[in-house]
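Q: what sequence does this backbone want?
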C-alpha cells in the first residue's frame, strides 16, 4: 500500500473530530423557514438540547461533543466525554443526568446545566449486545417517567437471535436496575422520542430487507402505549400483520405511522404543543413529530430527508393508509439527493431547542443545522 493510500485508510478509521461551522449542505426547507449551518461534528448522530441552549451531539466514534450556546452565537464544538465504547450515538438529557447509548452499554453522567465537560467518569447502567458486536451497532436512549429506554438493533437482517437484548427496546430504572425488554421483535428501533404530553416513548423502526420491493414499510409507534411487552413481528410478520411463511400474526402490533420502505428512520423529536420561545414554529407544527430518514442503499436509492408527521392531540392527524405510505407525512427538509442519486447530506439526529429552534445533524457532512421561522 502506498503512503497516500495508507494515509487515507488511517483517516477513515480515525475517531470523529469536531470543527467550527463552515459551508454546509444546501438543504431545502419550507417557505418561511431558514436553515443555518452552525457547527460541524464528524459522523454526528443523535442530539440533545440543554436548558441553557448548549447542544449535545452523539457520534459514530467513542466521544460525545457539545456545541456551546447553539441557540445563540454557537461556539466551536468541544469534546464533552469519551467512552471505552463505540459508536456513542445515543445522547439524552434528563434532570441531573446525561444518558448515553454505546454499542455495548447504556451510560449515565451526572450533569448540571452549563456543564461543557463531564464532571465524572461515565457510569455504566446496563450491558447490551452481550453476545457480540455484529449487525446493528447503534444504541439510542431516552428517559421518561423515571425509566431509561435503550434501543438495541438486531445482529442480522433475519435470523434467530441468541442474545436476548437484540431486536428489542430495553427498559431500566435510573440506576440501571430492573433491566428488561419493553418491546421485542423490533428490528432496529433507532429513532426514539418522548411524547411530551403523555410521556409515551415512540420508536421509528428500520425494517428488514429482501421482501417484495417497497416492503416492509418503516414504522413509527408508541411502544409504551401498549401493555405488557409488545411484539412488532420482526422476521415473521410485517405491515398490516402480513405473515411470512405461514406465521401467526394475530398478536403483532399494528403501528400508528408508516413511511415508505427503506427510508430508514434514525432520529425523532416531538415539537412542544405549547412552545412559546422566540423561534417557535407555526401552530400547524405544534405537537407533531419530526423524523429523520437516512435514506437507503437500495436501487434506486431512497432520498434522505426529514419528515414531519402532523398530530391531532396525541395521535397522528391521519390514520395509516396501507395503500399509500406517503399519506401521513410531509417533507420538511430535503435537497439531500440529486436526480442521479448523488447525495449531499444524510440527516440523523433531531432535537427541539428551548427557544423553539429545530436542530438537525447530518453524518454525511457532519453539519449541525439550526432551523427557524423567518422573522417577519
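A:
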Amino acid at each position: 500500500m502506498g503512503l497516500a493510500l495508507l494515509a487515507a485508510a488511517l483517516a477513515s478509521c480515525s475517531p470523529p473530530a469536531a470543527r467550527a461551522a463552515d459551508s454546509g449542505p444546501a438543504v431545502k426547507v419550507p417557505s418561511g423557514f431558514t436553515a443555518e449551518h452552525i457547527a460541524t461534528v464528524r459522523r454526528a448522530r443523535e442530539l440533545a438540547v440543554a436548558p441553557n441552549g448548549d447542544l449535545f451531539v452523539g457520534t459514530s466514534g467513542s466521544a460525545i461533543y457539545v456545541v456551546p450556546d447553539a441557540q445563540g452565537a454557537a461556539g466551536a464544538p468541544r469534546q464533552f466525554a469519551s467512552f471505552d465504547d463505540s459508536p456513542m450515538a445515543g445522547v439524552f438529557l434528563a434532570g441531573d443526568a446525561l444518558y448515553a447509548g454505546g454499542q455495548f452499554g447504556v451510560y449515565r453522567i451526572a450533569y448540571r446545566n452549563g456543564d461543557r465537560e463531564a464532571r465524572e467518569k461515565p457510569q455504566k447502567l446496563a450491558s447490551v449486545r452481550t453476545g457480540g458486536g455484529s449487525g446493528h451497532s447503534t444504541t439510542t436512549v431516552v428517559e421518561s417517567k423515571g425509566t431509561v429506554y435503550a434501543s438495541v438493533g438486531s445482529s442480522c437482517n433475519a435470523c434467530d437471535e441468541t442474545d436476548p437484548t437484540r431486536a428489542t427496546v430495553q427498559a431500566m430504572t435510573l440506576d440501571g436496575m430492573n433491566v428488561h425488554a419493553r418491546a421485542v421483535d423490533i428490528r432496529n428501533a433507532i429513532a426514539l422520542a418522548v411524547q411530551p404530553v403523555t410521556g409515551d416513548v415512540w420508536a421509528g423502526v428500520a425494517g428488514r430487507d429482501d421482501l417484495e420491493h417497497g416492503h416492509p414499510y418503516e414504522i413509527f409507534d408508541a411502544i409504551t402505549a401498549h401493555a405488557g411487552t409488545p411484539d412488532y413481528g420482526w422476521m415473521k410478520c410485517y405491515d398490516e400483520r402480513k405473515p411470512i411463511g405461514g406465521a401467526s400474526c394475530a398478536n403483532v402490533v399494528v403501528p400508528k405511522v408508516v413511511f415508505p420502505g427503506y427510508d430508514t428512520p434514525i432520529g425523532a423529536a416531538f415539537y412542544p404543543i405549547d412552545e412559546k420561545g422566540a423561534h417557535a414554529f407555526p401552530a400547524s407544527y405544534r405537537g407533531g413529530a419530526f423524523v429523520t430518514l437516512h435514506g437507503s442503499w437500495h436501487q434506486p436509492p431512497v432520498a434522505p430527508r426529514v419528515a414531519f408527521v402532523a398530530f391531532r392531540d396525541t395521535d397522528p392527524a391521519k390514520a395509516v393508509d396501507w395503500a399509500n405510505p406517503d399519506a401521513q407525512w410531509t417533507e420538511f427538509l430535503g435537497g439531500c439527493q440529486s436526480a442521479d442519486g448523488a447525495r449531499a447530506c444524510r440527516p440523523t439526529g433531531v432535537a427541539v431547542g428551548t427557544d423553539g429552534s429545530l436542530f438537525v445533524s447530518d453524518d454525511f457532512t457532519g453539519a449541525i443545522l439550526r432551523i427557524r421561522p423567518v422573522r417577519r
